[in-house]
Amino acid sequence: MQEYAVIVAGGSGSRMKSDIPKQFHTVNGLPVIMHTIRAFRNYSADLHIILVLPEIQFLFWENLCDTYQFKERYQLVSGGSTRFHSVKNGLSSIDAVEGYVAVHDGVRPVISKEVIAASFFTAAEFGSAVASVPLKESIRSIDPNLGNRALDRTHFRLVQTPQTFRLPWMLDAFSVDYQEHFTDCASVLEEKGYPIQLIDGAYENIKITTPEDLKWAETYLAL
């Protein structure tokens, strides 16, 4: 069945201390989002890529594509007021009822072909595949009434993207109304009762949020 990638890039530049949205910052000679799109295109020439951007950024993005002679194939879709609504808009642009959809953060440019492939392979077997990594450091729980206490970090995982699901599951799950605890696709699918299958992500698959993250991305992308 057809594979789709919905790449969501609706961030601002606030934590980057910049007026330029983080997805448009240049890393190793190319805007972050272009690295991300190329990573998915390198996975498969047949992958249907859907880029979701705020409509107000369309012209800026088109100018960047001209400047960098960016010719990758993708479908451009207008984003929504939240990540949930942006993903929903991306799903609404798919003219099919079967297939597999990987949703990925546009500001995670260091995503390997192997992780993308594993996500689609696992989703084909189990219906879902959510990239995650074990915690490296100790963690503590903070309670305003009880104070803080140590937790067993082996019981937790850091969740990443891609998060890949059967298309019918996605269409069903995203038919609900938005709720504040919908922080990623897995939380939306879980709300509807669908099982969440975890797969191994990668520590280098960082989400660029701060200037320090850009330096890490530069290093990883240069390898």
Automatic annotation (TrEMBL):
Pathway of action: Isoprenoid biosynthesis; isopentenyl diphosphate biosynthesis via DXP pathway; isopentenyl diphosphate from 1-deoxy-D-xylulose 5-phosphate: step 2/6
Q: Which gene encodes it?
A: ispD
Please give the catalytic activity noted in the UniProt record. 2-C-methyl-D-erythritol 4-phosphate + CTP + H(+) = 4-CDP-2-C-methyl-D-erythritol + diphosphate
The protein depicted here goes by the name 2-C-methyl-D-erythritol 4-phosphate cytidylyltransferase
Q: Where is this site: Positions MEP for the nucleophilic attack?
A: R153, K207
Q: Which residues form the signal peptide?
A: none
Q: Which organism is it from?
A: Dyadobacter linearis
UniProt site positions, description: Transition state stabilizer? R15, K22
CDD domains to which the protein is assigned, alphabetical: CDP-ME_synthetase
UniProt keyword annotation of Membrane present: no
Which EC number(s) does UniProt give? 2.7.7.60
Give the lineage. Answer: Bacteria, Pseudomonadati, Bacteroidota, Cytophagia, Cytophagales
Q: Which residues cross the membrane?
A: none
Stated family: Belongs to the IspD/TarI cytidylyltransferase family. IspD subfamily.
What sections of the sequence does the record tag as coiled-coil?
none
